[in-house]
Design a protein that fits this description.
Number of helices of chain B: 13
Radius of gyration of chain A: 23 Å
Helix content of chain A: over 70%
Number of strands of chain B: 2
Largest interface: A-B, 90 and 94 residues
Strand order of the largest sheet of chain B: 1-2
Number of domains of chain B: 2
Order of helices and strands of chain B: HEEHHHHHHHHHHHH
Number of helices of chain A: 15
Shape of chain B: globular
CATH architecture of chain A: Orthogonal Bundle
Helix content of chain B: over 70%
CATH superfamily of the largest domain in chain B: MetI-like
Largest sheet of chain B: 2 strands, antiparallel
CATH topology of the largest domain in chain B: MetI-like fold
Strand content of chain A: under 5%
Oligomer: heterodimer
Number of domains of chain A: 1
Radius of gyration of chain B: 24 Å
CATH class of the largest domain in chain B: Mainly Alpha
Shape of chain A: globular
Structural class of chain B: mainly alpha
Distance between the termini of chain B: 40 Å
Strand content of chain B: under 5%
CATH class of chain A: Mainly Alpha
Structural class of chain A: mainly alpha
CATH topology of chain A: MetI-like fold
Largest sheet of chain A: none
């Protein structure tokens, strides 16, 4: 039995090494002086370890890209959660003509793939004169997501009627009920949706790539791709860029790892 | 009740208004616009003109588009079975619940959390023939990404590497949901580990398997970031996945109408795949044990 466990550990460790090695080597390279990398063997220990590569990213516009990415992600997360909560409450708790048909329409849009809408969305943004603006980055995502609404609706339906009626008797209006009854009762699912939205928006690439140009509204993924194609052989600099693009989410993941792992299973998003 | 209904209706529509605007404008309208665009010519800057079925004719007879469909099918055929099998394997190891399993689980999901674009750039360095990590370790250069024979398998491997931990999470949840008495019953009946896996665990995982396969196919068929940064669709179109072809057609060749046709073909294929999987798999997914 113990030898069997040893075998399991051996396999798990090999898997972990295969998973972590690329990150470790990239991180190592990002601390290596460019000259050492060019003249010595690429995998030698940084001598001395340097932050120069990270400093050079500032000149390549990464500070601004990080700020744009953060702002874009924040606006989308707040908008998407707020508007999804409102819609989910309407679908779960109110009765009005056409409710179920509308809900069916929302669910049907889950079948619409992002790859298919990029081209027409580009035309629409161009017609509105919104190419290369902050609005173009956030508008397609900020008004809520059918999937979040779908999950929240299921959750809101399980909130006991007594809680809502008690609040009503105390004179609460609908907004009070949503803020003081529904939201506290749905904390885990809200955190889940928030985290998943942060991950998918922070990592978004295709839409920002096509709808922005130049430095002004460039996000981190686009900046990393641009840097890679411009300084193709300067891997120390490029590895610093990939580290900057990945590290905020890795930190977020470390802090919330249990929650995120659950989130993935609950939502199955991607 | 009847006096309250209209108020409730107004309130309902008011609460739905923002998301309904989003759904109509950014999900439904684009599906109409893409059909409209497929019959037009537009170069991103100039005027838009009606060209009838010309885009459809030229795309459906275009060898580059045919190539990208074949490449995408091959890519999906490599990625989905591999990531599913490896994900199931990892889940079986993690499900033993040995001390430290949670740490391994976290490690395995890490690549999936990171931007696919950044992951692709990282691997581009690792596989770089002159100063990459693999060439340095092996001591001689291998043209992983520019050799027409290895480019697609290697690109697929990077995507599998990214997804295994993510897929494993679903199988792990599925395995832990199997009632222990079912497995003990099989053990009492004399089933060995191998038989318990094939006769009990795997059939009980059918709903998970269905989910993992459907979402796996749909997302693999749309991979873009990885190809963009790893190979740019090359060499000679060997990794020109359909999402990359659409991007290149629209924003490289400025042929928006043709890109719209390709996007619609992709949409039709994805809907078709989902329906077929639903029909062949969906009927018998649930096991009622009560």
């Amino acid at each position: 039995m113990t030898s069997r466990n040893a075998g399991v550990y051996a396999l798990l460790t090999i898997g972990a090494l295969i998973t972590l090695a690329p990150f470790g080597l990239g991180l190592l390279t990002s601390f290596t002086p460019a000259r050492q990398f060019a003249t010595g063997t690429p995998l030698s220990w940084p001598h001395p370890p340097t932050l120069d590569n990270y400093g050079d990213l500032g000149g390549a516009g990464f500070g601004r890209a990080a700020a744009v990415t953060t702002l874009m992600t924040a606006v989308i997360v707040v908008g998407q959660l707020s508007f999804s909560v409102l819609a989910a409450y309407a679908f779960a708790r109110l009765e009005f003509p056409g409710r179920d048909k509308l809900f069916w329409v929302y669910v049907a849009t889950l079948m619409v793939p992002a790859t298919v809408t990029v081209v027409p969305l580009y035309l629409m943004m161009a017609q509105l004169g919104l190419r290369n603006t902050f609005w173009a980055l956030v508008l397609p995502f900020v008004f809520g997501s059918p999937y979040a609404i779908f999950l929240l609706r299921q959750h809101f339906r399980t909130v006991p009627n007594d809680l809502i009626n008690a609040a009503r008797l105390d004179g609460a209006n609908t907004l009070d009920v949503i803020v003081h009854v529904m939201l506290p009762a749905s904390r885990p699912i809200l955190v889940t949706l928030g985290l998943i939205t942060v991950v998918s928006q922070w990592n978004n690439f295709m839409w920002p790539l096509v709808i922005t140009s130049g430095d002004k509204w460039r996000v981190l993924t686009v900046a990393t791709a641009a840097l890679q194609s411009r300084y193709n052989a300067q891997w120390t600099l490029v590895m610093a860029a990939t580290t900057v693009a990945m590290i905020p989410l890795i930190v977020l993941f470390m802090v919330f790892q249990r929650r995120i792992v659950q989130s993935i299973v609950v939502t199955g998003i991607k | 009740m009847s006096r309250r209904a209209p108020r409730s209706a107004t309130l309902g529509y008011a609460l739905l208004a923002p998301s309904l605007f989003g759904v109509v404008t950014f999900l439904l309208l684009p599906m109409l616009v893409v059909v409209w665009l497929s019959l037009r010519r537009w170069d991103l800057l100039g005027p838009i003109s009606y060209v009838g079925a010309e885009n459809w004719r030229s795309v459906l007879t275009d060898p580059a588009f045919g190539n990208s469909l074949v490449v995408t099918v091959l890519f999906v055929a490599i990625v989905v079975p591999l990531q599913t099998a490896l994900g199931l394997g990892v889940a079986l190891l993690l499900a033993r619940g040995l001390p430290g399993s949670a740490v391994f689980r976290t490690v395995y999901v890490l690549p999936w959390i990171c931007a696919p674009l950044a992951i692709a750039v990282l691997w581009r360095w690792i596989l770089s023939p002159t100063d990459g990590a693999v060439s340095t370790v092996l001591g001689h250069r291998i043209e992983w990404l520019t050799d027409p024979r290895s480019a697609l398998p290697v690109t697929s491997a990077v995507v599998v590497w990214t997804n295994v931990g993510y897929v494993a999470l679903f199988f792990l949840a599925g395995i832990l949901a199997i009632p222990t008495q079912v497995l003990s019953a099989a053990r009492i009946d004399g089933a060995n580990g191998w038989q318990r896996f094939w006769r009990v665990t795997l059939p009980m995982l059918r709903p998970t398997m269905f989910f993992v396969l459907v979402t796996g196919v749909v997302s693999a068929a749309q991979v873009f970031d990885t190809v963009y940064a790893l190979t740019g669709g090359g060499p000679g179109g060997r990794t020109d996945l359909i999402a990359h072809r659409i991007y290149d057609e629209a924003f490289g060749a400025a042929a928006i109408g043709r890109a719209a046709v390709m996007a619609l073909v992709l949409f039709a294929v994805l809907v078709g795949v989902t329906v077929v999987q639903q029909l062949s798999f969906g009927r018998r997914v649930s096991y009622d044990l009560t």
